[in-house]
Design goal:
alpha/beta; Rossmann fold; 8-stranded mixed beta sheet; 7-stranded mixed beta sheet; binds nicotinamide-adenine-dinucleotide
């Protein structure tokens, strides 16, 4: 099969496949086309791709490939020319139903890796985990670099410094990595999550898990959080207000798949924080966890710095691309035969879970019923 590696939009520094992954793809029998400049922002030159065995092509030529690999939605896609082509990336179809219907009509077979079920078998292809892990790590480094005080406890002849107090809202993949990173930097960490299952993991990282009674049972939500009752929200707000008033850094990561992010930090809570404190909101793209978050912006509010960024993985483009490339290769292996051609097994929950459009139809049940 001919595989095309797309150059991402200018706002994205990652690339779906690095030269090292090109070598592996060619070994498995594929021909690889790479759009000129695709790896530039991730520090992979055209020269390295060529040495790895890829053919460099223009934007116009890349669409000849049978299967197009990317991360974000491809810009200026000649949709009319893509009948029977395969697209693999992170398309957030739960927020993009109209576009997905257009792709279906154009005859595109699309796989959105953010829709893979979060099962053990899917772990090696789980782009949400590989990228959220980076985002969680970077959120704390960004906060530490912005915060006008130390993170660790220091006792020096010139005086003592108390450790920074970090509050993490949402202990999924990003939140757990944020906790671990903040602890490594010597901070005291408190954590909220609606899923009681994470309590032990939080404690094992040396942080304090603050329990709020009566969270809605995630039950059938595949391990994800679900929307909470008004009564729970009121109780949770009360407890968050107590913690946030003492916090210097807040990392927010709370999300509910396919829905707006829950607003957990209200104006009154921001007003109670001390000047110089920093909030990094990783849920910014779906509305943010604070009342003041603006996506892709850093704002100042009453002496606080609020950073809204849901794409922090892109700020470590080399490692993020390396891990993404591994994820995507694992997924390709799942949908290709030993001879290297496409072979879709519709009985496989991973194929079914990630496929959004196929055979001119929007096939994903959840996207269809939106
Ligand atoms: P996510 O990005 O959807 O959400 C981040 C966190 O915010 C979650 O822990 C969620 O419970 C929490 N949250 C949501 N609403 C909240 C609220 N109102 N207050 C406080 N916290 C709130 O989560 P994720 O990191 O993508 O992980 C989702 C699930 O997938 C988890 O159960 C995780 O263990 C599971 N997972 C499984 C695998 C696997 O087995 N392949 C891999 C990674 C993650």
């Amino acid at each position: 099969m001919t595989i095309g590696v797309l150059k991402e939009p200018t706002s994205e520094a990652r690339v779906s496949v690095l030269p090292e992954a090109v070598i592996a793809l060619i070994k498995t029998g594929h021909r690889v086309l790479v759009e000129q400049g695709a790896g530039e922002a991730a520090f992979a030159s055209d020269d390295e791709y060529q040495k790895a065995g890829a053919e460099l092509v223009t934007r116009e030529e890349i669409w000849q490939a049978d299967c197009l690999l990317g991360i974000q939605h491809p810009e200026n896609m000649p949709i009319g020319q893509l009948n029977e082509k395969i697209l693999i990336g992170i398309y957030q179809p739960l927020f993009q139903k109209i576009l997905m219907e257009q792709w279906a009509s154009a005859g595109i077979t699309s796989f959105s890796l953010d829709m893979l079920p979060r099962t053990t078998r899917a772990q090696s292809m789980d782009v949400l985990s590989s990228q959220a892990n980076i985002a969680g790590y970077k959120s704390v480094l960004l906060a530490a670099a912005t915060y006008p005080r130390y993170f660790p406890l220091f006792m020096t002849a010139a005086g003592s410094i108390a450790p920074a107090r970090v509050l993490v809202l949402g202990a999924g993949v990003a939140g757990l990595q944020a906790i671990a990173t903040a602890r490594r930097l010597g901070a005291v960490v408190e954590v909220f999550d609606t899923r009681p299952a994470v309590k032990e993991e939080v404690k094992s990282l040396g942080a304090k898990f603050i329990e709020v009674e009566g969270a809605a049972d995630p039950g059938q939500a595949g391990g994800y959080a679900v929307e909470q009752t008004d009564e729970f929200k009121r109780r949770q707000q009360q407890k968050i207000a107590e913690s946030i008033a003492k916090a210097d850094i807040v990392i927010t990561t709370a999300q509910i798949p396919g829905k707006a992010a829950p607003v957990l930090v209200l104006d009154s809570m921001l007003d109670a924080m001390r000047e110089g404190s920093v909030i990094v909101d990783l849920a910014a793209a779906t509305g943010g966890n604070t009342t003041k978050t603006e996506n892709n912006k850093t704002i100042r509010y009453k002496g606080l710095t609020i950073i809204g960024n849901s794409n922090l993985a892109a700020t470590l483009p080399s490692d993020a691309s390396k891990l993404y490339g591994k994820n995507i290769r694992q997924f390709l292996a799942l949908i290709t035969s030993d001879a290297g051609s496409i072979k879709l097994n519709w009985e496989d929950d991973l194929v079914k879970g990630a496929c959004i459009t196929h055979g001119k139809v929007l096939v994903h049940e959840r996207v269809k019923t939106l």
